Amino acid sequence: MIAGVDEAGRGPVVGPLVIAVVAGDGEALRRLGVRDSKKLTPGAREVLYREVLRVSECVNYVVVEPYEVDRYASRGLLNALELDYTARLIELCPADVYYVDSPDVDADRYGSGLSFLTGRRVVALHKGEKVPQVAAASIVAKVVRDRLLEVVKREVGDFGSGYPSDRKTVEWLRAGLVPRECVRWSWGTVGKLFK
C-alpha cells in the first residue's frame, strides 16, 4: 500500500493550513485524472475529491488553524509544524511507504525526519504530485481549505484569495474586515499593514 501526503495553504496570510493523506491504488487514482490541485479548476477539484474518497483505502486530513501556524512560524519553525502534523496523519493511514511533497529545500532531511518520528518508510520529494497518491492528497487538502474559506466568506464577504499578493485580501486586512482568528499575524504582510 502506498500513501501520499500534501498540503494546501502554507503561504496565505488568511485561513488555515490543511495537510492531507491518501492511501490507495495509484493506478485507480491515475485513471481518475488526479494531478496537482493548482492545475485544476475548483469544479474539477470538487469532482475529483468525491472520486478520491470513493476509490481510496484511507483519506484523512488535519486543519491547522492560523494561531497554530503563527505559533510555529513566529519562531521560524514552519517546516517543524508540517513535520509534527504530517507525522500524526501518517499514524492514521496505514501504508507500506509514504510519499510526501517536501516543504523543505532538503527533501531527504525532511523524509528522514518523518521516518524518525513515525518509524515508517517515508520518501520526501519535490514536485511530489507526480505520485498519484500525493496528487490526490493535494486535491483533498485544497478542497477542504477552500470549503473552510467559503464558510468565512459567507459570513463576512469576499476577502479574495487570502494570499499576501492579492490586492483585495490586503485591502480587507487593512480595513479590519477579516475576522482576527482567520489571520496569520506573524506574516510580514500584516506587520507592514499595521506599522
TrEMBL record:
Cofactor: Mn(2+); Mg(2+)
Coiled coil region boundaries: none
Note on cofactor: Manganese or magnesium. Binds 1 divalent metal ion per monomer in the absence of substrate. May bind a second metal ion after substrate binding.
Domain RNase H type-2, chain residue ranges per copy: 1-195
TM annotation in the entry: none
Keywords: Cytoplasm, Endonuclease, Hydrolase, Manganese, Metal-binding, Nuclease
Residues engaged in binding a divalent metal cation: 6-7, 101
Alphabetical list of InterPro entries matching this protein: RNase_H2_suA, RNase_HII/HIII, RNase_HII/HIII_dom, RNase_HII_arc, RNaseH-like_sf, RNaseH_sf
Gene Ontology CC annotation, any one: cytoplasm
Catalysed conversion reaction: Endonucleolytic cleavage to 5'-phosphomonoester
Broad class of enzyme this protein falls into: hydrolase
BP-aspect Gene Ontology terms: DNA replication, removal of RNA primer; mismatch repair
Compartments, record wording: Cytoplasm
Family matches, as CDD domains: RNase_HII_archaea_like (cd07180)
The family this protein is said to belong to: Belongs to the RNase HII family.
UniProt cross-references to HAMAP family, sorted A to Z: RNase_HII_A (MF_00052_A)
The protein's role, per its UniProt record: Endonuclease that specifically degrades the RNA of RNA-DNA hybrids.
Protein name per the record: Ribonuclease HII
Protein source organism: Pyrobaculum ferrireducens
